[in-house]
Design goal:
Layout (H helix, E strand, L loop, with lengths): L11 E3 L2 E3 L4 E5 L7 E6 L3 H18 L4 H17 L1 H12 L3 H22 L6 E3 L9 E9 L3 E4 L7 H13 L3 E4 L6 H10 L9 E3 L4 H9 L5 E5 L2 H10 L4 E5 L5 E4 L5 H13 L11 E5 L3 H13 L19 H16 L3 E4 L3 E2 L2 E2 L2 E4 L6 H4 L6 E7 L2 H9 L3 E2 L1 E5 L3 H10 L4 E4 L15 E2 L2 E2 L4 H8 E9 L3
Parallel strand pairs: 7-8, 7-10, 8-9, 10-11, 12-13, 12-20, 13-18, 17-18, 20-21
Antiparallel strand pairs: 1-2, 3-4, 5-6, 6-24, 11-23, 14-17, 15-16, 19-22
Length: 481
């Protein structure tokens, strides 16, 4: 049953059991202010303590699970998500405001992420190292193997309530690590529906807990020494403060971005326009790798910008449950107000609006700014909104430098058919990923994903997350002589 249609709040998943609390959490529908999408509960301090204790105890079982057992559990979860595709897609649309087409795509990606996790669980390997590199080490061989590190604290964000949580849950299960997941308070129902599938996957009791909770309670996970890794996706300000309080545990941070795109004079303009429209305005720009800063070669500036603005003008805003909707509401009124304030500031500083710039209730129209001074927040900060700041350039090296002129470094896109410029971008852009002939918003779930500078540390993408969630152990075999 779809969670939003339940007559009672959805219970929370505590170490293999369904429980409730006295702290009701009502989930608002961003497209229908005042109308709830459903309800659940915030965990209590005692319930979080129980989950952590259960995870620590479960590690003695999860660490010994065979590869085929971990893989089977992940394949079960993947298949369960596929079987409930329409239900989960509609739930994402209701509680996050994501257009249904994009919501269904997220469900598909979530199923893929768990399937990749199953495959990676079957090939966590090691190396055989020859150690006889000098006479004193004659007759010795090294063998390495990766071992799970222990309980994991995970905190996932609202913008991809299923798939970004899956990028924490799937590699943890694949590695043999128990996990306590705090889903986003704005849209927790999606992962609680997935928890119904996890509950049937045959994992040891305590291996997985999915607990909505207040931010204050979630902060306890950060400093609790029983967790051996903290994985957080969210804002840079919060993420870096968490790292300061995390103690000795490993920390993986997937944080913000102000993604830049370079459109070179050799680019295929039609393709660049189509993809940049998707990258800039999907999910109302509420994606950390959404196209925010656009640098277009002066030779193609007029052609590109006229097509881009007309394409943005043609996007359809509307009900997320309507399959024809391109752009839905922003997640809440605070996001709308912040976006309006940033656009107004840019205009007051001399920026020129080519399109949009005004809120319409819970929606913000696609917005394109030019001639915007660099001190404007839309140029320096993370907009997380359906807006693009565009500027022309004459020299490709200068465009690379301008993309790098940011505290963020998550991903960047480069549209070019000049191989030398593609290599120059790869070598010169200070980002975690350079996407050639596509937008920085591109991601498939087995690739390494993460950033430099204020965009975080560590990498996700199942195999790379498994590396973070395991440790190498070395055995040296000596031949007595």
């Amino acid at each position: 049953m779809v969670a939003s249609a339940r007559t009672r709040p959805h219970p929370i998943y505590l170490a293999g059991r369904w429980v409730d609390s006295r702290d009701l959490l009502v989930v608002e529908d961003p497209a229908r202010p005042g109308e709830p999408a459903g309800a659940t509960y915030n965990a209590t301090p005692a319930q979080l303590e129980e989950a952590i204790t259960a995870a620590a105890a479960a590690f003695e079982s999860t660490r010994k699970m065979a590869a085929f057992e971990r893989s089977a559990a992940l394949r079960h979860i993947s298949a369960g998500i596929e079987a409930r595709r329409e239900e989960l897609g509609r739930l994402i649309a209701r509680e996050s405001g994501k257009p249904i087409r994009d919501a269904l795509t997220e469900v598909d990606r979530g199923a893929l992420t768990f399937r990749i996790g199953a495959e990676e669980a079957e090939r966590i390997g090691g190396e055989v190292l020859p150690l006889d590199l000098n006479a004193a080490s004659r007759g010795r061989t090294g063998i390495t193997r990766r071992f799970p590190i222990g309980p994991i604290a995970a905190i996932s964000p609202f913008n991809f309530p299923l798939n970004l949580a899956a990028h924490k849950l799937a590699p943890a299960i694949a590695s043999g690590d128990p996990i306590v997941l705090k889903p986003p308070s704005k849209d927790p129902l999606t992962m609680l529906a997935v928890a119904e599938i996890v509950a049937e996957a045959g994992l040891p009791e305590g291996a997985v807990s999915i607990l909505p909770m207040t931010r204050d309670l979630g902060d306890r996970m950060v400093s609790d020494e029983r967790f051996k890794l903290l994985t957080f996706t969210g804002s840079p300000a919060i993420g870096w403060r968490m790292k300061e309080r995390a103690g000795k545990k490993k920390v993986v941070l997937e944080l913000g971005g102000s993604a830049g795109v370079i459109v070179d004079r050799s680019a295929e303009i039609d393709w660049a326009v189509r993809r940049t429209l998707v990258g800039a305005f999907s999910y109302a720009g509420q994606v950390c790798i959404s196209v925010q800063r656009l640098f277009v070669h002066e030779a193609v500036w007029d052609d590109f910008m006229s097509r881009f603005v007309e394409g943005a003008r043609g996007l359809r805003m509307g009900d997320p449950l309507d399959p024809l909707t391109d752009l839905g509401p922003m997640v809440d009124s605070r996001a709308v107000a912040r976006t309006q304030a940033w656009v107004d500031e840019a205009v007051s500083l001399g920026g020129k609006l080519l399109l949009g710039g005004k809120a319409e209730g819970s929606y913000f129209a696609p917005t394109v700014l030019v001639d915007t001074p660099l001190e404007a927040q839309v140029c320096r900060g993370e907009a997380f909104a359906p807006l693009v700041v565009a500027a022309p350039f004459a020299d490709f090296g200068d465009a690379v430098r301008r993309v790098n002129d940011s505290v963020y470094g998550l991903q960047a896109g480069v549209f070019t058919n000049d191989l030398a410029n593609a290599w120059a971008a790869f070598e010169g852009l200070d980002v975690g990923g350079v996407i050639v002939n596509d937008v920085p918003t591109y991601r498939i779930d087995h690739m390494p994903y993460g950033g430099s500078k204020d965009s975080g540390q560590g990498r996700e993408g199942i195999r790379y997350a498994i590396d973070e969630m395991t440790e190498i152990r070395l055995m040296v075999l000596a031949s007595p002589s």
